[in-house]
User: Fold these one by one.
Assistant:
Number 1:
Amino acid sequence: MYGYSGKILHIDLKTKKNWVETKPEEWYKIYIGGVSMASRLLWENITPGCDPLDDGNPICFANGIFTGTPVPVGGKFGLASKSPLTGFIGDSLSGSWFSIALKRAGWDGLVLHNSCDNWTQLFIDDARVQFNDATYLLGKGTYETEEAIRDKLGDEQIRSCTIGLCGENLVRFANVTNDGRQAGRTGHGMIWGHKKLKAVSVRGTHGVTVFDPKTLNQLSFDLSKSAQGKYTEKYRIYGTSTGLLSTNEMGVLPTRNFQEGVFEDAELVSGEYLDKHHKVKVIACAQCPIACEQMSMVKTGPFAGAMTGIEYESLFANSSNLGISDMRAAIKLITISDQDGMDSITMGVTIGWAMECYEKGILKKEDFASKAHPEGLELNFGNGDAAVAVAEMIRDQEGIGKILAQGTRIASKVIDEERGTETYKWAVNTKGLESAGYDARTLKTFALGLATGTRGGCHNRSAAYDPDMKGETNRFTVDETRGRVAADSEEYAAVYDTLPLCKFIRRCFTGKADRAGAWPAIAKLINATTGWEFGYDEVDLIGVRACTIKKAFNIREGWTEKDDDLPWRWKHDPFTKGPSAGVIVTDEELEYMKDLYYKAKGWTEEGLIPKELLIKLGMPDVAEEIGV
Amino acid sequence: MATSTSKYAYIDCDPNLCVGCQLCEYICSFTKTGEYNSYHSRIRTVRVDEVLITAIACRTCENAPCVIVCPRDALTQDPVTGIIDINATKCDGCAWCIEACDFGAISINPQTALAEICDQCKDEPDGPQCVKWCPKEALTLTTPDQRAQKSRAKLISETLNIPQKATDPK
């Protein structure tokens, strides 16, 4: 087999035993890698129905098909566990060296079972597995932990996935971080913290070989050059943050906890402003010729010295969404989330919820008392200093930080039960995952994508904001095409998340991001790597299968059609200002679109998957368990 | 700080342009071994922290310390190009050359346990593959004269001390 070793490494964190599982080539042709393979490994290894924090919930890594080759942006891995935030599939992607080291160590995937008895730094040294005491790493930030491990083990090429203080302190939306990149969103860091797993480090010294290196080199070289042109200009020059002014212009930029869709100070928190005043350097993930990470630093004021990479999603959540127009506070907030390891979107949206609670008089100044601020905090929208203090309380699980560290769904439930309030009405999450930076009230196809998304309110898994924002659909209304459009956009994104290739390369194949241009080019890369004979249809099926195994996982964990819902605010509470004012997604619209979506997927009216469909997709064992 | 005294060409990396993607390592190891493996690359990217990133290969020093120090005379320097040759039959992997090199530009191949060094792809018709592949044009094969031009430009920009915008990526 080319491109794969055919081997999955299993490690029992409790007994410290490890064993190797071999998988046949046919299995790889179905699940490929990344999100799909990680989800499949989770399907095979979890104790169904277990609590996300139980020992029966394993940590599953899956490498990519192109990892360790010169194929641009192919150095990524998928990470899956049952999410403590949603109770459903928690599938994340992260880029850079870790995946490459894992592949060079000879592993296509990695499954970690049970929990450690003591804080552990796991070291996979090619074929050897070592359990090291992690006491010396406790309290260290994510990047700092990686460096400390390299120092201690004495090899600069050792790569690690780590958790920071947030994971150690069991923040429900803590991340796993590697090489300055995050496997974010669904709370992997909390699971790792609960398992007392501070870091997983890998040294891989073997080479990666492919079926037809001459062809693969030429394709990669051409793609790498194409990635320097206009197709990636947006990412290379300003990074993703450049989208902020466009979303503001369309009136879909979440502002003051999704109360409005336009922010009066958008200019001050735009990618353009960031570039001019804060940018230090642009850096890349390993194996990426694009380089989009805009390393930005605070140069003046109390937060001087804070530095991290700024992305659109982190930026909206911690600027406009909090009414903050001081970029320095936003950079500081994002630096805390990156260095201490928590999801910057969920952190920002949760602080936004708390700010609204404060402005509505439900949470009081003294509710925010901490050691640093014994008198409490005036958590008005726009108060950057207070937001930073609250982020630190979340990280440290101090005072009300304990409640906020659970994310908006649990936090609003706790407060509502305690105070008889209705703060759930502005807890903006889907299935418990806080929403990303495109307000879906007037992006109706995207609203459907979020409602039906297997991991909750995620812009990376449903890309349906794209047709809505480009005007390919009427974003203000619904019609009979939406089920198909939402399904297509999700399956399209899943192809990239499964190979995985970073989606920022999507225009570099032919200039257009469509399937007709990209799939044949991707098939060529797959075939040169593996020697398979993939064509357009096989590439297209990669995404369908990825979405199917994730959905199947959710069904087995108890999903019902009622779980495909939207935040209360989007269904009842229109904007008063801007081009998107006055519009909501009604229950009727949502139910109508959900029916269309289930139909487009070939599922039952209840959203369940027919046996024949699963068998046709090459998943007979899944059909046996959850097919109808 | 270690400075090279080379009168020859060598592969130089502009840290302002290097983004740390490591494609140079991929193509170098492939060119030399047929496998993609950073451990076999003769050019190495270095990330000192999140933003201090560059790549380093042999600087073709004059009176190269690695050549002088080798106890088995396995290393020789081409008098015309300055490229260091390591004779695999004579080399026993003692690593004295690594100790002697101020640039960390020599490494031991973990498989063969012998020393390896950049030869500027002298056998490749289109020259150094890392330079050809570098997506940001951070890598260049520079002569002393080109390095002098760079030094002049650097001197002027530092002397005038006009605040500079971070370098836009290519």
Number 2:
Amino acid sequence: MKRIWKHPEEPQNAKRYWRSVAELDRREDFLKNLGREFPEGDTLTEDERENSRREFLKIMGASVGMMGLASCRRPLTNILPYTQHVEWMVPGKSLLYATTMPRSSGATPLVVTTHEGRPTHVSGNPLHPLGGGIDTFAQASVLDLYDPERSQKPLGAGKELSWAKANELIAAAVAQAKKSSGGSLGIVAGATTSPTYLRLLGELKTAYPQVKLFQYEAVGGEGQTAANKEVFGAGVKPFVKLGSAMRILSLDCDFLGVDPVAGEPISAFTKHRAKEAKTADMNRLYVLENRYTLTGGMADHRKPIPASLIPVAAALIASELGDASAKALADTAPAGLKEWIAPAVRDLIDNKGKAVVLAGSRYGAEVHALVASINNALGAFGSTIELLQGTQAPEMGGFAELHAAVSGGQIKTLVSLTPSSLYHDAPDAQAFAKLITEKGVKLIHVGMLKNKTARHAALHIPAAHYLESWGDASAADGTYSIVQPMIAPLYDGASKIEVLLALLGRKKLGPVEAAAPAAPAAAGAAPAAPAEDAAYTAVRDTFASVAGSLDEKKWNFTLRDGFLKGSSFAKASAAPNVAAVAGIVAKAKPAAAPTDDSLEVVLTVDSSVYDGRYTNNAWLQEAPDPVTKLTWDNAAWIGSVTFRRLGLKDGQHVKISVDGVEIEIPAIEAPGHVSNSITLPLGYGQKGVGVVGSGRGVDAYVLRKQPGMFVLSGAKVEVLPTVAELAITQDQNTTEGRAVFREGTLDTFNKDEHFAQKIGMDGHIPENISFYKGQVGVKSKENPDGFDYAKHHQWGMTIDLSKCIGCTACIVACQSENNIPVVGKDQVRKGRVMQWIRMDRYFAVPKWGKNEVAQESTYAVDNPTPEQLENAEMVHQPMACQQCEAAPCETVCPVNATVHTDDGLNAMAYNRCIGTRYCANNCPYTARRFNWFDYNKRNPLIETKVAGITMNNLYAGPLGEKKEDESLRLQRNPNVTVRMRGVIEKCTYCVQRIESAKILQKQVQRDSKNFRVPTDTIKTACQQSCPADAIVFGDLADKKSAVVKSKASPRDYQVLKYIGTRPRTSYLARLRNPNPKMPGAENIAVWSKNQF
Amino acid sequence: MGNFFPRWTNWLPLKLAIAVVFIAFGVSVGVAYYFTPKYTRVGYEPTQPVPFSHKIHAGQLGLDCRYCHSFVENSSHSNVPTNQTCFNCHGPGKGNIRSNSPKLAMVVKANETGSSIPWVKVHKAPDYVYFNHSAHLNRGISCVSCHGKINEMEVVRHDQPQSMGWCLDCHRNPEKNLRPLEFVTNLNYKAGDLTRADFYKGLLDKKIPAGEIAKTIGGEGSKADNLDQLLALAEKTYGKQVTQTEVGTQIKKHWQIQPPENCTACHR
């Protein structure tokens, strides 16, 4: 008899987690694909099927005929050994180097995996004082190195130049600068913490006293810098100790996402989010913001307020804490805000010395001044914020000064070293570009992308990637961190340090002149030492001044560790000058809240392209936005109230006009977004940067007329009839709305720490109900789990939902480690995204309270109101293959391509898979991916012309371009098969790492019998990348391992436990710590009103 | 109605059926033999750009395999040596052995130009197979088990099928190929050449109880307390000469050799 499995009914009155408004409304397009593992459109109509069958037979006939000819010969392959042995190089083994990714926000300490000299994967440097996990941008940066469309040749007004010519032009500019002692030379640097870079800028100033230095970042925090300088003093750097802060209030500061604060890493914050025992303390996060950010998602209390009101909120908090200067501004606060802020501030005061208030870096000086005053009143300085005395940077002007200097006509040569693209992202960029041309300024641009600035500059110099060049950076606490090259520049690019050295006349840019052919190693003498690299020398000089002397031993240790031990900044001596706050605040103009006719537009940093600099990175483009799940595009985020008032459909175009500038952009409904506010992610809409980034999204920079302006008011919205085709992954790979996410409050936990294990049916599941019989997991008396724990490792994983911030770094890490292809926007729309781990994002609205539903109500009719959607909660849940012990996928594979291993992995033999996709259809976690096309060989991002018809390259079949890009191939991990068309793939717990660890153990043990890999030595790529330390992986058979401890947590639960798949990955339920005195606290994270 | 078909056609279907059976059998046998690595790979003996003779170097001169393939115990890949390795003996100013030989011309030239010698690959695992040399060499599998007697080959020849079935044969019964670690690169090794006393003393030195060793020799009932008793037991069981089964079984048992048969062991 056929047994039809029915999932248990969800209890009435339970909170429902949903991914999109379409799901909530049970819209038809959502329901259509709900039960389908592979959405409609992948299948063909009856006619098409018949035609394609004939085509297939025809082609097959021809191929069979040719097969005989093709297979006669054995392809000749060569082994090309090194002629001279390379130090440390063992062919077949990876080699790790510690280095640092220098960024505008500081230093990201890294360990880079190289294979035969090719960097293939980056991960955080665990030795570094601020090391650990890394974010998405750092994780994806290795792909930029191999970007085939990177700038490779110097350009002069868009035309290729030789390096000799480029050097000539630089020399001419230097000669001209010398005449005016630098007066005609301007240099635009990006925000940097590199001591060598800053030192060279200083030397430039000494060499040419009149040289003008500017700092420009498209999304820099000018207000913050100005306020900090006035309140804390020049060179003083506040260092936020997230690990000491038990109460944090964020004023639109996405410190867990794209607006990091200088301070302890995110893991220090998440450490206090997990709780295994009732006695442990937990931190509490309050967030005020206009849209959902990752930080907002982690908040215990969050209130969506317009960004224009953030200064008012800051003033309100300050005046609650007794700052009289804030009174005037605070009085303009709208109703409701004070009721929310007052109990929060009370809580902060109660935790004096353990509390901190953070503000978004792009708010004005008044907000940051107020926050300094607030933190001072909360006793944060010295406890949760350390003031460090940083190195003195040379005096640099901002964009306003740059604009003035250019229009004043003093500057003849402008060198742009900033990673931002002046012609694209500068305030009123078009006018600025015109001004530069009009004034006859020669723009020398240094960058990795052929972006607008590069193409129009008088001279463009291809920049070297940080993995190709020498450099350094100071971490947030000042630790001197080294940037060391591990591959020679692929395209002879020059690092910014080298460009400065060229301006100082100490270096020629471009390829190193071919050294004289090495004398035949007749005498066997050591080859002549290569001429000392100027950048290397410069970095070593800086090192000598930081370390006190050029101690070779210390230098070598620094290279090995990636940083110089004990080189952090000293504490600043002066106390913050709170008296200065009043002066700054007095200058602030009170802003009015947006209204229905006059909306506000908030320009934000994008989680995929940052300010636009990562636009040509395909991994980042395809990594879904953590909040909207949008890939390959940007869109206007509009809150439900406004969205519905305007009568919009998802993806419908709107025309947004601010001060006479108009842009047309698709709109999406964003739950949790405040009304009358529109969020526009920046950095999109660039042209000519390459097939990945060109023409993606809409440029929102055009709306910005003033530097430092990110909140624009008085916007008008006009609804357009067209609807854009956006690639949003939120409704793909669903678990059909089954209750997979569990959370509770601290209170729930304290009442019953095992609450998560009792939600739903879990408390009532009988023993051994498994529907699927495991293949090796046969239970016996000696072997109660069905696996041999004595003889084999048993791998398992936990994911702590309390710690997971939802940043998607794991997705990119997995992509980099496991050779996962990018499929392009068109394929993403069809639900064919290949990422092995996905970040499920759910919203939730409680079903009780004012809108309490009757018992007999169904899903379809208890829709929350738009106002409730505005206050929706947001949670994240990473989901990959759960490595079920009794795996449903294995039993349906007709060819045994997916089977279980003795150590509990659900193995996938790609070469055996015939692509029936039965396994994917039978996976309750929808964790399997199918290669619909040969994504690795056939570039899915380009168009091909076949018989006059332009089509996506994938669909051109054998007529399409079939070539793997040589440079992208270099990035591949040689230890993982590159999959071809027609096979299923999925997470394997990084089996290549497991196997190499097991083999290494054999190498070490040789003829002894201890084959067990030492405790916790294997880390999966996702675990390694996780900045929140949310993922724990290890051997369940090793009682000392972290994963065994983690699985012992009372919060541990298995997703869909009742189907009896016995997953090896389990989750730790999320905890939230609401303040009972806050409005609406009773609804937060309560799973069901009558919980058990 | 006349007979359209002559009488002999009555048997035609049967004859045809029999013929088809024979042909099918023949094709199957043919495919099984000619289309499998046993035939397609074994015996492949490409001409190498440099006429390097393993017979002279590894055979006559007795160079250890690891002198040139230096990382074979540490890496998945058995490296092909750099010119520097060749020049340790042949290099002018070093060993200077036959440094003017025309056979070495390509090596000398490669050293000057820095371009690699394009050695022709003999043993090639498919891309989805992850074979690891170090895992085998460190656990008592000799080079000879997979590559044959390289020390007797003038030009390297593909000696074993190296097919999946062939791999699994050994993974299921590793005792046929296991040997003490010191003989891993000794391509002439035969278990019979071992001194039994030394072998068992080696095991006892590893702190393996004599009783355990005895059980491995003669089954659960066997007992031994010291070396002499072990030797007596072994002689009774295996005869005067040390046998491969004897060595292999002991090593498999006491080094905990569990060759993986999981897909993930080789396919990732």
